[in-house]
Amino acid sequence: MAEISLIPDNVRDVAKAAYEAGTFEAIAKAILAERERIAAALDEEADLIPCAEDAMVTRSNARLVRADFDYEVADHLAEEEERRG
Q1: Cα–Cα distance measured from residue 54 to residue 9, given in angstroms and rounded to the nearest whole number
Q2: 5-37, pLDDT tens digit by residue?
Q3: Is there a contact between 77 and 63 (Cβ–Cβ < 8 Å)?
Q4: How far is CA 47 from CA 50, 57, 58, in A?
Q5: Could you give the CA distance from residue 26 to residue 35 in angstroms, rounded to a whole number?
Q6: For 35-69, how does the pLDDT look when each residue is reduced to its tens digit (9 = 90+)?
Q7: Which of 12, 16, 67, 83 is least enclosed, having the fewest CB within 10 Å?
């Protein structure tokens, strides 16, 4: 039976090479940077959305991306944003 994976072969190859080279820290930094890039793009999109409710949902999605889809952390980020005004 063939192996079924949601991870593309090229990503698996890069991860294997990083593991063998001991570069987990570099991968972790790259993941965080990509997560922030996506969240920043969502925030920018939210600024352009004319509907306040849609913009609120898009900002919420940005927080979820930053929180690695941990709803508790995302809620904490929302509370921090409210405090900062």
Answers
A1: 36
A2: 555 567 677 777 777 777 777 777 788 889 999
A3: yes
A4: 8, 12, 9
A5: 14
A6: 999 999 999 999 999 999 999 999 999 999 999 99
A7: 83
Question: Contact 37/65 with Cβ under 8 angstroms?
Answer: no
Which residues 6+ apart lie within 8 Å of 46 measured at CB? 55, 56, 58, 59, 62
Q: Which residues does 55 contact at the CB level (< 8 Å), separation at least 6? A: 46, 47, 49
Look up the pTM and report it. Answer: 0.71
The string of DSSP letters for 6-63 reads SS-HHHHHHHHHHHHHT-HHHHHHHHHHHHHHHHHHHHHHHHH-S-HHHHHHHHHHHH
